[in-house]
């Protein structure tokens, strides 16, 4: 849905005495969403934002969708992504921030099943939708470079939201900022995670995957396992601890009502800004060293590990192919190749692929082309996904899917849903995978899943 308008209101405030955490706790309302980044500099992570009180909701799975707006609910067996494309407001206007109202939520791994023939759904033990999106017309943007906070409201669906109504929304948020801060209990309940798959069973799955590699079915496959713990504490307190213990480019806390999603993902699935599309393949992982010397030696070893390099090259090629389906001829370029990026617990090999979208490509077409990332599926992607469906015991759900926003500006920023936790029905769930290739050592791949999940499994340490 394209709208030609520029109806919005905003108020800038000095922000040197406020943080996204304090503001999130001050603002009152339903389904509050918080997005932050640890990389607070001009090119990456300059902005954080909070959205509150959505005006519409879209929930969907393979059986159809439910769309609620203005107190009315429409249910259909049609494709939820087609419905999102139909209702997503894209404004022909220049706005000051990449996110300026729009859709926030997640697209689960199985959303890819709508486009490709992967197989039957596995057991849906968490009973969660494939797609859950809220639409926001009231939000707060942090500019960490300027130390400035902007309160904003927009007529998202072009339905005559008056200037007075937008100014009221802004003044209400401003009042809450200065009078409404209530700090939640910073403590949280005990976490004691147990794996869904026993070590010997995961090792056996790796061996089965390697048989398919030897037969030439695939070159690489990512097998994952889930860890679950009872949890009766404060989810936001858990997020506060996680963002400190494992700072990452994508940090998010999302209140869906009946469940909460929080995470610190190192990887972008795909980003669209001003019709430029970017993806950052991450493949090749090692635990951090205990000293600078040991850390540097591990990094050097990672860049000389033939197994890790082969895996990374395959996934870079997948990323280029994904963008090549949507980009203008000759615009796809590899601008970063095999850089080491370090995080609290692990280091990764990272590359960056960019392109310029063709004029006929909708931003949701980019999601369809890139989901799931090759880094969480394998190569060739479709065959790897089919085998994942045969080998893993339950539906992946949000794991290996995407979390983020589609803005009214037409920009999109989606994090890969890894290092991500679901809290639902007093249980916390974390999932992590390992890339299997011809010469993989099964026990080492099991250990890789532990290394990748450690940031969340050991959040209190």
Automatic annotation (TrEMBL):
The keyword Flavoprotein does not apply. Pfam families: Anth_synt_I_N, Chorismate_bind. Keywords: Amino-acid biosynthesis, Aromatic amino acid biosynthesis, Lyase, Magnesium, Metal-binding, Tryptophan biosynthesis. The keyword Signal does not apply. GO terms for biological process: L-tryptophan biosynthetic process. It catalyses: chorismate + L-glutamine = anthranilate + pyruvate + L-glutamate + H(+). Residues 199-452 form the Chorismate-utilising enzyme C-terminal domain. SUPFAM superfamilies: ADC synthase. Belongs to the anthranilate synthase component I family. Heterotetramer consisting of two non-identical subunits: a beta subunit (TrpG) and a large alpha subunit (TrpE). This is Anthranilate synthase component 1. The lineage of its organism: Bacteria, Bacillati, Bacillota, Bacilli, Bacillales. The gene is trpE.
